[in-house]
């Protein structure tokens, strides 16, 4: 049975790599995002790689009115339907401290917007009884750190949402995977200093597709972040609050 991925935030560097790899595997892609011209270029590449469906559609996490057209198109697609969420934004903590109005958009991009969309599409996936939902969070959501705790809080909320969605949808044959990448060489991190274990987006995308095919529940990528975050989570709060991590 053919599979089509709805890829939200399809203009992100990791999402582009994921779309190409999915196309190489013979999957279709419905690329959803704000920059139509950018996505059309990716769609052409995906079609050349063998994707049986390679389309673009407008999506804005901050505009729920944009969701209905995707839901309608999803209902018309035959075969297995899966969703991968790469949506996100990351203003610096300093910027949000100086301008708290940035917080609402950060939370919408990283948590509430994707959560609303997934809640709306969940009945469509459950009715088919198959498919996968991939939600890309961040290791920043594992513990509040001084340098990015608002962004981390949004990702933590998304992690918890995905955990509940996994509990719900797994009973209907739909698998939900939470992805926790570390630092990745993308536009989000350009210009930042002291980024440990910096990974290339192609590596992250390959790990995500492999994890989805293997029905992993939670994926740290690169894998080094699993022991690193395990240690960070275990540090007592009285010590952690004094650390610059």
From TrEMBL:
GO terms for molecular function: oxidoreductase activity. It comes from the Bacteria. GO terms for cellular component: membrane. InterPro entries: NAD(P)-bd_dom_sf, SDR_fam. Its EC number is 1.-.-.-. Keywords: Oxidoreductase. Belongs to the short-chain dehydrogenases/reductases (SDR) family. The keyword NAD does not apply. This is Putative oxidoreductase.
